[in-house]
Amino acid sequence: MNSTVKEFRDGIFALRTRRFGTVAELMIETLFQFNKARNQFHDRYDDVNNKRVEIKFSTVMKENSERITASNIIEQCIKANVSNRAMKSTEIETFSFDCNIQQVKRVEFDVLYYGLFFADQIAIFKTRSSEIQEIPGYSDFQHKGNEGEGQFHINQRTMAYHFDNKLIQWLTYEELYNLFKSP
């Protein structure tokens, strides 16, 4: 990975919630030639198949082995950077991780594109809204009183299901960079 692409990747890992989500949405929109959403309850629209599209992604980070305390706060903050915690796709059997795909409102979309930003490449998965309840560990209750807003985790216990049944594409950071690079 050249230095510009590495900076691009590191920047993606540094983004927080909404800005990170926008990167994932633009990636899926461009890869699959989707259009803007028809309303605020889904992310994009597939005009070819007449489907509402939802997009949910997570960065894959090695789990922290220690809690932050007054005696280790400096060490833990230093260890928290992307180069120390971002996990490669080849390390999924080596390190523990837990990616939460959340705020899944099944009635608001037809197809979910979801995935994992690893340090070396991006895994893209796809499922229909009607199949989400089959995902291991799926819960239709994310927060108390939040009926219909669910979540599921991708981790060492559940990853085989996603890779065996829902994986549609791997994308390198070079490919993602080139997708948006101006000529």
Q: Would you give an account of this structure?
A:
It is a single chain. The protein has about 180 residues and is α+β, with helices and mostly antiparallel strands. It has one domain. Helix content is about 30%, strand content about 30%. The strands form two sheets. A six-stranded mixed sheet has the order 1-2-3-5-6-9. It has a three-stranded antiparallel sheet with strand order 4-8-7, with no helix packed on it.
How are the SSEs placed, and which strands pair?
Elements: H1 3-14, H2 17-32, E1 35-36, E2 44-46, E3 51-59, H3 73-79, H4 82-85, E4 98-104, E5 111-117, E6 121-128, E7 139-141, E8 147-155, H5 159-165, E9 167-172, H6 173-180
Parallel strand pairs: 3-5
Antiparallel strand pairs: 1-2, 2-3, 4-8, 5-6, 6-9, 7-8
Structural class computed from helices and strand pairing: alpha+beta
Number of strands: 9
The side-by-side strand order for the widest beta sheet comes to 1-2-3-5-6-9
Q: What is the makeup of the main sheet?
A: 6 strands, mixed
Poorly predicted regions are none
Q: Taking all residues together, what is the mean pLDDT?
A: 93
